[in-house]
Amino acid sequence: MSLNLDKSTWKRVAFGDVIDSVTDRVDNPSEAGVDRYVGLEHLDPGGMTVTRWDAPERVEAQKLRFLPGDVIFGRRRAYQKKVAKAEFEGICSAHALVLRARPDYVDPDFLPVFLSSDYFLERAIEISVGSLSPTVNWRDLKVQEFDLPPLDEQKRIAALVWAVEANRLATRNLVTEVRTVLAVKIRELWSLEALQPVGRIGDCVTGSTPSKSNRTFWDSEDVPFYTPSEIEGDTVRVARQKVSEAGAKAGRRLLPNSVAVACIGGDMGKSAVIEKPGISNQQITSVVGLSTEDAYLLQALLAHPLGRAAMEARETTTIVRKLNKGDLMKVEVPWPEDRSVLHLLVGNHRRAVGSLEAEADTLVGLRSSLLADVFGGN
């Protein structure tokens, strides 16, 4: 893709000469006079708009106030690429920078576009300081120089990129609506159908980690080794670690259509269906011996707020939250004899969500291509 930009009209400027860092500090979040707090955890990598937040009453310590049109940039761990424009007033984490365009030099709609580009983010990562939590300091950022287009061209670029972003957000909203429909249907099941314990639906197997001291278990990457960090969405597709065949034999094999449930710590209660055979660590208990249709139905039931609540009711808490295998087996979910309609419902939901998410990913790719064309090369 090429926009045929004439970069001879671009001017090199110091970041702090055209963009302000807003430092309106709020010492007591509950008395900020706003109803939204945006933490770094609410900023989606690659997103350009703030779409999630929490209540100020739920946080403490000093925060930063932002106004509509300001851009929140996650300066801690800038490699996570958390940049989002706010469309409302609120407070945000002090681990962010609140950036505001000087409209005589930078169009406010262009600012989040520029900050989302690799051109800016790679520089931000480069000047970050600290090893454990590398952080961008304003004193270092404000003196960085960048080539920026004139205002009229900024507006044209921003309009194009924001049109793509608007379509991406609309697609994401459709995903939310589709998920809401399934959630409502599942909630109805809890009052209409007899409940069955998970232990009667399938066998439960707790994973184990092959000995790290035995190098033969880890000297080749033959078999996926699943951990709770890979349990996202309804399907586990990728394992960050793999073990050898010998390592897999030392563990407990999981076949496709096993429902992996994280049973300890902050991930407790997360669940997903395993697509590829492998093994898991001891922080996962899996329900095995299910058909594909039953696996995704059970996962949908466990992922529903009522399913999560049923698991939480049986957890034990000492230092960390924990759900033992025996307690997971006792968790009850609606499980009628004839599940064909439910199989169809969950299957249609998965296909619809998959199609919409693929469309959203395509739009992300288009936006990335646009940004690369605008800010890459000469």
Keywords:
378 residues, alpha+beta, Adenine-n6-DNA-methyltransferase TaqI, Chain A, domain 2, 4-stranded antiparallel beta sheet, 11 helices, 21% strand
- Could you report the average pLDDT, rounded to the nearest whole number? 94
Unreliable sequence segments? none
- Give the strand content: 15-25%
Principal-axes shape call: elongated
Total strands: the figure is 23
User: What is the makeup of the main sheet?
Assistant: 5 strands, mixed
> What is the CATH topology assignment of the largest domain?
Adenine-n6-DNA-methyltransferase TaqI, Chain A, domain 2
Fourth-tier CATH superfamily name of the largest domain: DNA methylase specificity domains
- Quaternary state reads single chain
Task: Report what the structure shows.
The strands form 7 sheets. The protein has a 5-stranded mixed beta sheet with strand order 12-20-17-18-14. A 4-stranded antiparallel beta sheet has the order 2-9-6-7. It is α+β, with helices and mostly antiparallel strands. The radius of gyration is 24 Å and the shape is elongated. The chain has 3 domains: 11-148, Adenine-n6-DNA-methyltransferase TaqI, Chain A, domain 2, CATH 3.90.220; 150-186 and 341-378; 194-335, Adenine-n6-DNA-methyltransferase TaqI, Chain A, domain 2. It has 11 helices and 23 strands.
Summarize the structure.
With 378 residues, this protein is an alpha+beta fold.
